[in-house]
Structure formats: structure tokens, C-alpha cells
């Protein structure tokens, strides 16, 4: 669909700019929200914390008005990139293996990918999400980066110094009361949460619990100290699982 014909100096001009676009601004925003939610659900929790701290921003723009091609731009914190690259460089064999599989850490703070979208579903076309495609590569590189950071920060002394907010302590206590039983669950769970807080930050507790639910990540050796402390606190604070056994 084209714009109106106009006469200028007796010459007919045809306005070639389309009056419609495959994706309007609300659709682009919805697509950006979907992509960010996909990343939040798939990538280990250090990514979500960076998003919460407003260190990561995503922006979706239309590449061409007459096609369903878009450009997804993600801004990452320089500190996280440097930390992840240092971790990978410290393990040359792992770096070579991951590179052979097509994985790599982002090299700059601005990463982007162009891809085609299904207008009806606002989903990337299937070929676009393969790891050989730009969007698939972007997703994989960011996931690798924050998987490494989540694992590394579980026992980081710097991370452990982050203070607990009262709401974070209360959240752990509430979760404890739902998961365990005790003669005085409120007192026992206060004991349990305080024991965790003396060793770890709230984020480290979250990271370690993520590792415990991820067999591959736990197999790397991270999370072992947390698991031992968790079991010790359950015993010393008088907690037992709903089945009557101490949770693993």
C-alpha cells in the first residue's frame, strides 16, 4: 500500500513509503518484553540480578518497514564481561572446548542480533533461534556468561559482604516454614536464616540453591560448601522436612 500521488512542477511523484509496517511500536515493545522474559527464565540468576540492578537494557527496533525483520540490542555491564572473560581465560582447556562448540563470551557491552519474526505470534522464526543464527548465538553467549558468573559468585568473598535486606531475611524464613517443621518453626527458621546470613549474602543463597537444582552446575564443584552448611543448620536449628527426614 503506497501513499498518495502528488504533482510537483507538472511531474507525477509516487510516494514509495508504505503506510503500514509489519510491527508497530506496541508490537516491538511486546516482542522486546517476550525476549527479555525468555532470557530471565532460561539464564542463571546472576542475569536477573543485573537486570534488577538496571545494568542490562534491551531494545527492539524494526529493521525494515515492509518486512518482519527486527534488531534486538542488549546492553551488558562491562564489569560482568570482564569478570566472565577472566574466568574463562583461567581455564584454557574449557575455553577451547566451548569455542569448538560455538560458545563465546561477549567481547563488548553492546550485543545485537537481527532476525525475522512471525507477525501473528510475535515469535522468532524457528531458524532464527538455532545456535548458528545471530539470535541463537546472542542467547547462548549471554547464557554462558551468566552461568559462569552465577557459579563463581556462590562463594565470592566480595559477594558475601552484600548486606541482607529485612525483606530478604523474611523471605528465607517464610520459605523455611513452608519447607520444614519444628517444635517452634518461627524460632527455628530465624536460627536457620541467621546462620545462612552469617556466611552468605541473600544473592549467594539464591545462586547456591539454583546450583542444587541444576545437576550439571553442581557437578562443577560449586555449591558443595553451601549444601553442607544447609544440612548442618537444619540439624542445629531443630528443623526436619515434612517427611521427617533432614532435607538433602
Label the structural class. alpha+beta
How many domains make up the 3D coordinates? 2
Mean pLDDT: 86
Give the DSSP E fraction (strand runs of 2 or more residues): 5-15%
Using only CA atoms, what is the Rg? Answer: 24 Å
User: What fraction, in percent, of the residue positions are helical?
Assistant: 40-55%
Number of helices: 11
Number of DSSP-assigned strands:
8
Give an account of the 3D structure:
This protein is an alpha+beta fold and about 250 residues long. The chain folds into 2 domains: about 25-150, no CATH class; about 160-240, no CATH class. The protein is about 50% helix and about 15% strand. It has 11 helices and 8 strands. The strands form 3 sheets. A 4-stranded antiparallel beta sheet has the order 3-4-5-6. It has a two-stranded antiparallel sheet with strand order 1-2. A hairpin with a 6-residue loop joins strand 3 (about 55-60) and strand 4. The radius of gyration is 24 Å and the shape is elongated. The termini are far apart. The model is unreliable at about 1-20 and about 245-248 (pLDDT under 50).
Amino acid at each position: 500500500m503506497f501513499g498518495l500521488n502528488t504533482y510537483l512542477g507538472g511531474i507525477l511523484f509516487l510516494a514509495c513509503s508504505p503506510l503500514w509496517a509489519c510491527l508497530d511500536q506496541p508490537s516491538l515493545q511486546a516482542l522486546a518484553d517476550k525476549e527479555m522474559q525468555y532470557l530471565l527464565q532460561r539464564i542463571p540468576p546472576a542475569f536477573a540480578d543485573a537486570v534488577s540492578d538496571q545494568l542490562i537494557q534491551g531494545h527492539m527496533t524494526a529493521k525494515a518497514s515492509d518486512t518482519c525483520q527486527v534488531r534486538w540490542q542488549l546492553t551488558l555491564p562491562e564489569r560482568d564481561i570482564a569478570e566472565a572473560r577472566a574466568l574463562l581465560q583461567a581455564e584454557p582447556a574449557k575455553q577451547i572446548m566451548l569455542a569448538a562448540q560455538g560458545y563465546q563470551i561477549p567481547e563488548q557491552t553492546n550485543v545485537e542480533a537481527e532476525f525475522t519474526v512471525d507477525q501473528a505470534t510475535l515469535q522468532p522464526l524457528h531458524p532464527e533461534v538455532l545456535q548458528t543464527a545471530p539470535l541463537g548465538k546472542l542467547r547462548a553467549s549471554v547464557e554462558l556468561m551468566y552461568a559462569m558468573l552465577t557459579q563463581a559468585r556462590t562463594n565470592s568473598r566480595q559477594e558475601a559482604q552484600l548486606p541482607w535486606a529485612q525483606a530478604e531475611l523474611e523471605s528465607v524464613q517464610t520459605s523455611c516454614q513452608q519447607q520444614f517443621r519444628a517444635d517452634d518453626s518461627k524460632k527455628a527458621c530465624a536460627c536457620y536464616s541467621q546462620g545462612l546470613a552469617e556466611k552468605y549474602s541473600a544473592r549467594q543463597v539464591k545462586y547456591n540453591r539454583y546450583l542444587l537444582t541444576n545437576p550439571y552446575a553442581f557437578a562443577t564443584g560449586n555449591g558443595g560448601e553451601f549444601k553442607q552448611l544447609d544440612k548442618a543448620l537444619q540439624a542445629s536449628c531443630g528443623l526436619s522436612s515434612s517427611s521427617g527426614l533432614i532435607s538433602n
